[in-house]
Design a protein that fits this description.
This protein is mainly β. It folds into 3 domains: 99 residues, Quinohemoprotein amine dehydrogenase alpha subunit, domain 2 (Lipocalin); 98 residues, Beta Barrel (Porin), CATH 2.40.160; 102 residues, Lipocalin (Beta Barrel), CATH 2.40.128. 4% of the residues lie in helices and 56% in strands. The chain contains 1 helix and 26 strands. The strands form 4 sheets. Strands 1-2-3-4-5-6-7-8 form an 8-stranded antiparallel beta barrel.
Length: 332
């Protein structure tokens, strides 16, 4: 009897897990994919969220530069994560359903109660149905400023003017539509990469299948449409600068599209002013040396405030006021 008890006890000890209580393996779901998010309360993210799972680790992206990093709690459907975007960073909890096709959760700032909640459903592609305001370079084959798209499953059809049409297919995991276009001036191929929220895209187009692109195309829809306008700064500006650089009373800007070149006594500058932006960034050179600058223009295009930095580690501020406008400040 004693031998039986000792033997049974030894077997039980051997069967005990090392280091604590037994834990189930990670759930057999795959979080990788696109998710349509619906927020309640303060919204951290809405629309399209992209997740990628590697083992028990989950990483995600949303909006303009938002990121998520987390990990499944062992044996559960819960991911404890952190978020980071232009507003700062904080914590997040995500709980998946058993089939892996939905999740819900909440988020907050460091050390705080939840700021908002959310639920989401899996989507195998972004929904790109809608009207997009577009800008096209490379030729006159696309003379329109709008493209209308309609999506059914993976397939997308659209038009960009009388008698013209697009036909394409959405990729499973890259937010990319590839297809063809045909209009009164010709026909060819097109490839568009959509943002996770489907509100904008950028891409290329060409004439002969397999050929190099003939031009580029960007588009925005919804609330982003007004941001496609090009701010026009060409003309003469009164300026005042602190420090040794830009020791001039005026700068003359020349502009071609997004490229801006400026000249002033003893110096010059060159920069880029993207469509939809009021910020000109670039480099300068004068008798003081060389360096970089950032000019932030007012919404009416009549003034700017900025900073400059020299390679010699000197830096300063600069302000400007428009004197002569060669054309309207905002150019559609």
């Amino acid at each position: 009897m004693i031998r039986y008890l000792v033997t049974s006890l030894a077997i039980a000890i051997v069967m005990l897990p090392v280091g604590g209580d037994p834990q189930s393996p990670n759930p057999a779901i795959n979080a990788t994919g696109n998710w349509n998010v619906n927020p309640t309360g303060e919204a951290l993210a809405s629309g399209m969220l992209r997740l990628r799972q590697d083992g028990s680790t989950v990483a995600g992206s949303y909006g303009q530069g938002g990121t998520i990093n987390g990990k499944f709690e062992p044996g559960t459907l819960q991911v404890d994560a952190t978020w980071s975007d232009s507003r700062g960073n904080g914590w997040m909890t995500i709980v998946f359903t058993a089939d892996g096709n939905r999740f819900s959760g909440q988020w907050g700032r460091p050390g705080s109660r939840p700021s908002g909640q959310f639920d989401a459903a899996r989507s195998i592609y972004p929904i790109v149905t809608g009207r997009y305001h577009v800008n096209v370079t490379g030729g006159t084959d696309f003379t329109t400023r709008e493209i209308t798209l309609r999506q059914l499953g993976f397939n997308v059809v659209g038009n960009y003017g009388p008698g013209t049409q697009l036909n394409g297919t959405m990729a499973l995991d890259s937010n990319t539509m590839t297809g063809t276009w045909q209009g009164s001036s010709g026909h060819g191929w097109i490839k568009l990469k959509f943002a996770d929220d489907s509100k904008s895209f950028e891409g290329t187009w060409g004439l002969v299948p397999g050929s190099e692109p003939s031009g580029e195309m960007t588009g925005t829809t919804g609330d982003n449409a007004q941001n496609t306008a090009q701010l026009w700064v060409k003309g003469l500006w009164d300026v005042a600068s602190s420090g040794a650089a830009f020791t001039t009373s005026s700068v003359k800007f020349q502009q071609e599209g997004q490229t801006v070149i400026g000249s002033y006594i003893g110096g010059h500058l060159q920069g880029t002013l993207p469509r939809g932006s009021h910020v000109l960034t670039g480099t300068w050179r004068d008798s003081h040396g060389t360096g970089s600058f950032v000019f932030k223009f007012a919404s009416d295009g009549r003034s700017f405030q900025g900073t400059w930095a020299a390679k010699s580690h000197d830096n300063g501020s600069i302000i400007g006021k428009r004197v002569i406008a060669a054309m309207p400040a905002v150019h559609k």
